[in-house]
Amino acid sequence: MSKDTTLPDNARHTPISMDGNPTIDERANHCFGCGPANPQGLHLHFTTDTSNPQAITATCHFQLDRMHEGPPGHIHGGIVAALLDEAMSKLNRPLNVLAMTRHMEIDYLRPVPLYKPLVLIGRHLSRPAKADGTPGRKFFHQGEIQLPDGTVLARSKGLFIAIDEKLLAAGLAQTET
Ligand SMILES: CCCCCCCCCCCCCCCC(=O)SCCNC(=O)CCNC(=O)[C@H](O)C(C)(C)COP(=O)(O)OP(=O)(O)OC[C@H]1O[C@@H](n2cnc3c(N)ncnc32)[C@H](O)[C@@H]1OP(=O)(O)O
Description:
By secondary structure, the protein is α+β, with helices and mostly antiparallel strands. It has a domain at about 45-165: Thiol Ester Dehydrase, Chain A, CATH 3.10.129. Helix content is about 20%, strand content about 25%. It has helices at about 10, 25, 75-90, 165-175; strands spanning about 45-50, 55-60, 100-110, 120-125, 140-145, 150-160. The radius of gyration is 18 Å and the shape is globular. GO terms for molecular function: thiolester hydrolase activity.
């Protein structure tokens, strides 16, 4: 069945230019957290440090304005959650896994200010082995939003589950129709 190329992009979720066989990165082009093609996204850009494979990190320097306000002068709590989720999810690629958030918990320690430079950090914590000793599919990560002086404003712990590539392909096929 041929595709209706007259539909607006927000209904298709994938830009017309990516028709064919888009990679997962191309599919993520509209990701609310990091997709460069999402005009309403956060446009977060992360640098990953894999020098210690046991403690991979992903770091992003960012600043938000009133578009994302919750308490006056401060970032909305749901956006704080999205920021932390994004930071943790950025650890999956350097770990060579496609994974989705299964569970996350957040400590909102201090209100997170708008119009201030902030640091968002994801840290890989552990990947427990299965009972038979083979690598498990659960990835535990931590996220933090900090002031530049290191003061932690919000902290998360997340469980990400590796997605079977065959199921992923089926999922992507579903979103194509
Ligand atoms: C269309 C497809 C596109 C895919 C593309 C993906 C890649 C590219 C993403 C890029 C974008 C990223 C963006 C940011 C990251 C998001 O935000 S991802 C979006 C939010 N997340 C979701 O939508 C996920 C929705 N959930 C699901 O699809 C399914 O639950 C999952 C995650 C695939 C897991 O399903 P499942 O395989 O049935 O796993 P389930 O048995 O429920 O739980 C797995 C294990 O975790 C354990 N567990 C559950 N909760 C807990 C807990 N609180 N504590 C400890 N253990 C727990 C369970 O007991 C279980 O353990 P075992 O029995 O295996 O020992």
